[in-house]
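Students often ask why we bother encoding 3D structure as a string. The short answer is that it lets us treat folding as translation between two languages. Here is a chain of 540 residues written in the first language.
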Amino acid sequence: MTFVDAQRLLRGVFWARLGVAAVLLPVGLVLPDAMMPGINHGVLVLALLTVVTSSGGLLLGPPLAHPRRIAWLVALLDVVLVTAVVAATGGARSIFTFLYVMLVTASCVTLSRTGGLTIAAVASALYTALVFGRTVFPITSLFEAPEETTALEIVTMFLNTATFLVVAIVAGGLAERFQIQSRTLRDLRAMKDLVFESVGTGLIAVDPSHTITTFNRAAATITGVPAVAAAGRPWEAVFGDLVSLPAIEADLASGYDALSRHEATLARTGGSVPVRLTFWTLTAGDDESKTAEADGERLGLVCACEDLTTIRAMEERLRHADRLATLGRMSANIAHEIRNPLAALTGAIEVLASSGTAGDVRERLGQIVLKESGRLNQILRDFLEYARPAPLARARKNVVESIDEVVVLLEHRATPGTLKTVREFPPSLDWLVDPQQFRQAVWNLCLNAVQAMPDGGELRVTAAVAGGWLEVRVADTGEGIAGSDLAHVFEPFFSTKSDGSGLGLALVHRVMQDHGGEVHVESAAGAGSVFTLRFPPIRG
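And here it is in the second language, the structure alphabet:
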């Protein structure tokens, strides 16, 4: 038992003593003498006043330096005072014998089981001596007439003394168990507080009325709001409209173990900070009772708040490093792409510049010069289109028309009978896109799909709305893409074709980024490929 616990227990005992004295004093004066034979009002009043004086003095005085010693002294004093009260109100016939039971119980709480048993033994000895001294061995005959003893009184005396000991054993065991559980609970609370305050993640608890009940040190650091100022305030007073708690509660209604994640920017003094908020439902009851049919009592929400500033900075550094790596690969690919036509141009010009070149040879070399010049021009034009894209000109467009035009053009370019096209889209589907860039992205994907099937195959084009997003899917049954190449297919100048520039899919990726959408690829060598374009929902 700690010093603070002993102080609190003793103060509780002192208040209880005052309460008992306040009740017994008027009762002893009001009850008729028939209920308390041979009552001695002077002894009764003196005993009760002693209780009041000692309790009042201990309550009003400074904190006790040795609370356990005081507890022993008070318990021994109370044994004597209770014996005096019993003696003054009839002895073996006193109606206040129950005070011994109260005293033994209090001693078990303040002095543990051993102390309770000791006080019970002392009480039994004094009570037995009192009864015997007034009846069997009339020691008190010098100042009062001896009383007759009945067998019932003797039996009652032994029953009372046995009761004192039984109460001491039972109450002492309960008191020890209570103290052990109290220490365990105190240790658990200390551990909880240590873990709760030491974690780097902000932990916030709100009750069903969305009032903040718990706010740890990390949460105060992230939000810039002291824990003392946040506790007891509504969620909106600290976080504003960062997230909607009613909407989150609706999301979490699917089950007690569900969670809801949100990323947002938290405004605070001196700037803003990106945060991730993860919410759980706080419920009471054991896990077995928390089922879909019978959830535990909902006590509120728990929110884990994470500062993403470091993560965002790390992501930016990784993106920067990735851009540098991509730039290096792109530079190498550009050099490779330009070197081949330049070598051809150089050789042709050297032959043309030499004397004695036949006319038909000169004509053929001139065609080579024109062809390679055009190839260089195309490479530079594609690169400039990728590097300096035109600004988006969004408009509500029936995208199905653009998709169907692309499919028709490819059907006419393919060798008859080799290409099978499958259209899976509605007659009309309006969406907010840049019509020219949208058509360019679909054309590049479909052209790549046809080129991946040199011996023919099936081109399947699908357009539909899923989850509020427009999804355009282009699938082929061609050669597929090796797993080692999937991570590089959208890099500029990366191509698995001998005559490819490697800018087609890079342009598709850039177009989707400009639209705020996504492009995904699923492929395996020899199993065909599926490219999916996802355009964001129309706002407003």
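Translate back mentally: Residues 139-143, 288-294 have pLDDT under 50 and may be disordered. Keep this in mind for the problem set.
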